[in-house]
Amino acid sequence: MLATVASNSDKQTERLVLALRKRILNGEFSPGERLTELGLVSLLQASRTPIRLALERLANEGLLDVIPSGGFRLRSFGLADIRDAIEIRGVLEGTAVRFAAERLESAEELAQVKRLTLEATMEIPITLEGFARYLETNKRFHRELWRLAKSASLFRELEHACKIPFAAPEALVFGVADLEQSTAFIAAEQHRAIVEAIENREGARAEALAREHSRISRRNLEFALRSKELSNRLPGLTLISNQ
Amino acid sequence: MLATVASNSDKQTERLVLALRKRILNGEFSPGERLTELGLVSLLQASRTPIRLALERLANEGLLDVIPSGGFRLRSFGLADIRDAIEIRGVLEGTAVRFAAERLESAEELAQVKRLTLEATMEIPITLEGFARYLETNKRFHRELWRLAKSASLFRELEHACKIPFAAPEALVFGVADLEQSTAFIAAEQHRAIVEAIENREGARAEALAREHSRISRRNLEFALRSKELSNRLPGLTLISNQ
DNA sequence: GTAGCCAACATTGCATGCAATGCTACAGTG
DNA sequence: CACTGTAGCATTGCATGCAATGTTGGCTAC
Fold it and tell me: Which residue of A has its CA nearest to B69?
């Protein structure tokens, strides 16, 4: 038995994917930097084979670029890339809620989203320690919307699209009290409207609402990039090159 | 030097991905079947390491499912899955042409799509040997639309979404003369309209048109599934389970 | 001084052995 | 007859060695 704490899973590769992703999003590498297998061996306490596999996975998550002659480098994201990724997520979520509206069989299927809407709303007087819980509730709400679309294909694409840094709905609802509070109220109203639209089988309305809803992430992103304070609190922002 | 024809690339893994994908889409495996590394060693004349890598890639293309206890199995597609995949492609292409309309700087950027539109139209009296050329032109037209969106993120997602069998725009424009001919005329008109919309910066119209355009693939798919004759010519159809 | 070439080094791609784990089939027991 | 336990087998996960290829830095020639 080795000394490594097999906490996440008993698979090395899983552990490495998580560890590497965390480090990348933590800004521990610079954009464009080559990640060599041997260099990671000492850093992550693992052998080359699982490391290579982890790199492969992160590459088709979109975090790494494949170097044509072999190996991987940290992808460099422009602001435009992230904005587009968020908009794509909005488009896909729009499709999800449209599907949900089109495919709804009974209003009872909406019990869970409604519960989560309410829950998130009641968490809105956001305290510092309640912040993580709010994020979690928000994430679960969105996942539940995805589920209601009743489409494995769409679910897959949504998961794929949300791997891009800051593209996921739960990303970037950060810790600036003022902005956060008002944003949370707006988000809650949008959530309510989306669910209402689904319930009424108003597919087009639901789609439009979900697209607009994703704009919250975009505004937050742009705000964060302008704020020095937030840049310190979100080290991953260094992944985004200015131009 | 080994006897294998290193035609595609000098990388084993690349070759294996292509070879395996081809065999899968050729219906050489049954849905749900487990693909063992050792079994593929003898079939593909390669060692386990690159085979594992190829399996990994096909898995996140969506062709294979990961078995929780290890290994991969051929994913089983329902008809609904493919229909959704086509619709998702339509949604993403809709976004692409909307972006293209919104981001168009000069009408000259459209020279290439216009050329391709014309080219495809002139190829429409489709002969048997011209069929592949028509497909190729069609594919290039769509790729050119993707390019005009000027979004690396969106391009990535489109490529990802089109890896699902029969989801790509060039899939399933098959060889039944009657249907084919009339379908090609309809497609050509839709292509023309999409380009026109982009040129006029009518983003919403372009998006709606592209979505509708993807329905051609859906109709073709459903027709193919009803036709015994086509089932023989398209062995990959066996990938789609009836329910 | 600059451009181009060459050699040493760094890094990956691939092959293969080994250990661990899951799976299957069979036998024994209630 | 059904169910459970177990032993053997099939299969993957990981480690590591080797060969091939790319890369870098210095040296030479112009």
Answer: A11
